[in-house]
Amino acid sequence: MANADLDKQPDSVSSVLKVFGILQALGEEREIVITDLSQRFMMSKSTFYLFLQSMK
User: What is the pTM of this model?
Assistant: First the structure.
């Protein structure tokens, strides 16, 4: 999913789509590191980590 598509969505929808994208990526690649995932989703590592923490 392109980041430009997410920018057109309301914030809550955009966040939900990011969370589902993260879950899908984690399901596909069990041994992936946060740096790779944050780059894939065009987020800083700290923002990506906050997303992961909110998903607990």
Answer: 0.66
What are the φ/ψ torsions at residue 29 (nearest 5 degrees)? -130, 100
d(Cα 45, Cα 8) in Å, to the nearest integer? 23
CA-to-CA distance for 49 and 43, rounded, in angstroms?
A: 10
Q: In terms of DSSP H, where are the helices of the chain?
A: 3-7, 11-28, 34-40, 45-54
Type of residue found at 1: M
Q: Give the position of tokens 């899908």.
A: 24
pLDDT tens track for 21-50: 988 998 998 788 999 999 999 999 999 998
What size, in residues, is the chain?
Answer: 56
CB-based contact 6:17 (threshold 8 Å): yes
